[in-house]
Amino acid sequence: MFKRRNLYPYQLHPLSSQPLSEMSDRSTPELILPQSSLPPLLRYPRRIPTPELVEQILPLALQNARWRERYQQAVTHAAMVAQAEAALRVSLVLAIQNFAPQSPVPPTIERRPPTEPPASETPSPEPLPIPPRTATPVFGLGTPVTPAPPLYVSPPPHYSRPDSPAYEPRSPTPDPPSNSPRPYAHPGGDWMVNLDHLGQRQHDVMIPVGLEDEEAAPFFRYDFDTGSPELLTTRGRNCHVYARFLHARPRPYPCKVLTKRQRLLFHPQERHTPLVDRALDLERDVTLRAEVQHFRHNIKTGREISLRLAMLKEEYNNTRAMAHQSARRLAAADAATRIMGRVVEEVAEEDHLPQRILEPGMRSLDHNIEPLRYEEKCGWCRKPSHDATACSMLRQCLLCQGWGHREEDCRNPHRYCAEQEVCQVPTDQAYYLRTQLLCRSTIHTVPQG
Fold first, then answer.
1. What is the largest CA-CA distance in the chain?
2. DSSP state of 403
């Protein structure tokens, strides 16, 4: 093992003429110790023995931090040298000799003699003359070697077709077709000619031509990708496309209307629906299939709308029931008597409100018993006598919880009256006195004047 060359500018040697404390940072040259003066196990080629280096640095290590670091390195190196024999399992001298630097040996380059080219049956032309080249010395060999000339490779044969036509200049590539309309030209795709195998029109559909004229559509196609299939027609390529619903073609004789059982045959999502679909495939009538799809789509849409109507109807009646409960709490607080007294005695006498508001308001309190109308006729039953909010077909009776009548016309108004409670029927109800004996309430109210 070798002591690494010290990279610091300080060099310490035992044979130096100056003391170690007076040595300069840039002066002392490197000295080599004779090999005979060292012990046999501590002789390093061209280096200072580690123990002596430790002894030399020790006085300075106590004064200078840099020398203290070198002293620690020398001590560590001495410990490594002491354990080298056990670690490498060889003698220390042999290890030093094996780890000594050696000069590199240049590799030997083996040159093979050039091979002769294979003989060919057809004679080749004479090779081209090659200018002489100077010999290039090869690294590691004493005599230069002249490289062999390269092999001659004949050019590939040229093939020509004697019957090929001579080149003729062509006109430039025409521009792609524009999107201008081309009547009576086939539109392409799945468009069909509006004529059957007998030359008769399959669909008697007229399409406009210009501003006033019309003609039979020359091309058509079907669109079954919607809930209501459509018949698409056009005059030709890049022309306008006209759409109309595709309906079943009627028979040439009158037919009866469908019964309830027959209508059920075409309902969607039934157990027999796959059978009907297969029968439509065998019938091979596109218009009949389109009409069945129309019918099923409308049935399904009506079912969804009816569910929404039922939910809205339930929500509407729940809102009316909450308003009815609020009216009962107002009655328990005697709100009508208290507020009406304030209106007649105080509001009518003070000048807080202008007369244009006060006079119509007082007439309304004296004569009106129905709320104002907001519709000309009912939006549900179409009757002009009431609004949709008062329609008996939509609202549930708040007295008997029945349907089809209003609370004013209820024939069983005391159905939910209970004991130890106030009667839930107003005194101006049409059947209040007639059905009073059926009331189970033990607390009866007195009509207010």
1. 147
2. B
What would the two tokens of residue 161 be?
Answer: 């077709």
Structure tokens belonging to residue 384? 């002009």
- For residue 225, what are its two tokens? 């990708």
| Residue 128 burial class via C-beta count within 10 angstroms: exposed 0-12, middle 13-18, buried 19 and up | exposed
Please give the torsion angle defined by the CA atoms of residues 349, 353, 357 and 362, in that order, rounded to the nearest 10 degrees.
-30
> What's the rounded Cα separation, in Å, for the pair 269 and 266?
9
Q: Which pLDDT score is estimated for 72?
A: 75
| Residue 360, number of CB atoms within 10 A of its CB | 10
Please tell me the distance from the alpha carbon of residue 46 to that of residue 48, in angstroms, as a whole number.
7
Amino acid at 273: T
- For residues 181-201, b (16+ Cβ closer than 10 Å) or e, as one string? eeeeeebeeebeebeeeeeee
pLDDT at 293: 92
Q: Which residues of 418-444 are buried (b: 16+ CB within 10 A; e: fewer)?
A: eeeeebbbeeebebbeebeeebebeee
The domain limits of the chain are 20-98, 184-245, 335-368
Identify the pLDDT of residue 33. 40
Express each pLDDT in 209-233 by its tens digit. Answer: 888 888 888 999 999 888 889 999 9
Closest CA relative to residue 14, chosen from 42, 51, 69: 51
Tokens of 195: 């004529």
The DSSP 8-state label assigned to residue 343 in this structure reads I
Choose among 424, 421, 414: nearest CA to 442.
Answer: 421
Question: Could you report the per-residue pLDDT of 171-184, keeping only the tens digit for each?
Answer: 556 555 668 888 88
Q: Which two tokens stand for residue 449?
A: 């004047």
Q: For position 408, what pLDDT does the model report? A: 86
Strand order of the β-sheet with 241-245 is: 192-193, 219-223, 230-234, 241-245
- Rounded-to-integer distance, Cα 355 and Cα 349, Å: 11
Q: Which residues of the chain have pLDDT under 70?
A: 1-51, 53-54, 56-57, 60-61, 63, 67, 78, 82, 84-85, 92, 95-178, 444-449
